[in-house]
Amino acid sequence: MVSQKETIGIVYNEDYLIHTQGQHPERKERLEHIIRVLDKPAAEGLVNMVDPVPAEFEEIALIHDSEYIKSIDEACRSGKKFLDMDTYIVPGSYRVALLSAGGAITGLRKVMNQNIRKVFALNRPPGHHAERSRAQGFCLFNNIAIAAEVARREYRLSRVAIVDWDVHHGNGTQHSFESDSGVLFISIHQSPAYPGTGQLRETGFGDGEGFTVNIPLPPGCGDVEYELFYSNIIIPVLDQYKPEILLVSAGQDAYRHDPLAGMSLTYNGYYNMAEQLADAAERWAGGKILLCLEGGYHLEGQAGAVKQVLNALGRWELPRGEIGPALKPSRTAESRLEEVFAVQKEYWDL
Question: What is the 3-state secondary structure (H, E, C) of the chain?
Fold first, then answer.
């Protein structure tokens, strides 16, 4: 990683706030709190605000079935309020979802074409649960999967890595690429938890066998446990894959006070994860890294975690804040590490 402060691109548009519904956990206040904590860095010239361009239908169709895309538009026009028991829509949701996917694509193009190597797309609705023909888990279109496919087709990249640190497994992203070695998908997530996928033996199939790496962790894991798996699994796998760009599904719901999960990450834990991934991007991808917002439902906690992620990416030298109390990993985490080793040693030199 570079030693001097680096400007970070932030993809954001106020229209992301249109998609909101009362006290639903995935509501506009999630973004409003993040934008407030960015005011001071922005004033210091450490943030470059980027306006997203809405995704084209054909770009969404790289990942999603055409009839499904049309059905989202029709559902929003009809006044329908829910696509499933968790995933709501409002009349403007289809347009905002195009803008959210477009935010990921805009961020990708900024990283690939401009002099800003690191971009965080503060886009919503989130995406990593969205399947090819199904909305799920608050997600309409799979933003990061769409960006990954654009990276491959538009920039002819042959090794794209996606790391998903959201507390919930990115089932939609995994299913988009699990038979394809051109995209490495790594997910570290709480288990048991929604959506119930992401087990150890889900490693991909066909040409993609071994290029899906799932790390299901027991509830209660925090900074020390996540560091254990980053240093022993995630970073070594990335170093062997040598990605040409690194994408991150950045959900901050493993934060210790998040109401929808049971993990114990602190701001310092998010700083450490972002720093290690940025270092890996520096080694193999010229520093190119794109993060897309996923979950995170403790409003102040997510905003503080995002600030520390940006602090790590840009070497802003801001105080890190809270530090987890654990001095060594839990026995259950150490046991899980042995289980992950046993599976992943079939594919990687660990």
Answer: CCCCCCCEEEECCHHHHCCCCCCCCCCCHHHHHHHHHCHHHHHCCCEEEECCCCCCHHHHCCCCCHHHHHHHHHHHHHCCCECCCCCECCCCHHHHHHHHHHHHHHHHHHHHHCCCCEEEECCCCCCCCCECCECECCECCCHHHHHHHHHHHHHCCCCEEEEECCCCCCHHHHHHHCCCCCEEEEEEEECCCCCCCCCCCCCCCHHHCCCEEEEEECCCCEHHHHHHHHHHHHHHHHHHHCCCEEEEEECCCCECCCCCCCCEECHHHHHHHHHHHHHHHHHHCCCCEEEEECCCCCHHHHHHHHHHHHHHHHCCCCCCCCCCCCCCCCHHHHHHHHHHHHHHCCCCCC
Residue ranges, the chain, pLDDT below 50: 1-2
Q: What is the pLDDT of residue 2?
A: 46
The vertex-140 CA angle with 137 and 144, nearest 5°, equals 90
Tell me, yes or no, if the pTM score tops 0.85.
yes
Known catalytic residue: 169? no
* Domains annotated on the chain, with CATH: 8-344 (3.40.800.20)
| Cα–Cα nearest to 102, from 146, 154, 137, 139 | 146
**Residue 48: φ, ψ to 5°:** -110, 110
Rounded Cα distance between 3 and 161, Å, is: 24
Q: Radius of gyration (Cα) for the chain, nearest Å?
A: 18
Q: Kindly list the distances between the CA atom of residue 170 and the CA atoms of 61, 119, 216, 321, in Å, as whole numbers in the listed order.
A: 19, 20, 12, 28
What is the tens place of the pLDDT at every residue in 327-336? 789 999 999 9
- Which one of the listed residues 64, 129, 175, 298 is annotated catalytic? 129
**221 neighbors 330 (Cβ within 8 angstroms):** yes
Q: How many CB atoms lie within 10 A of CB 106?
A: 25
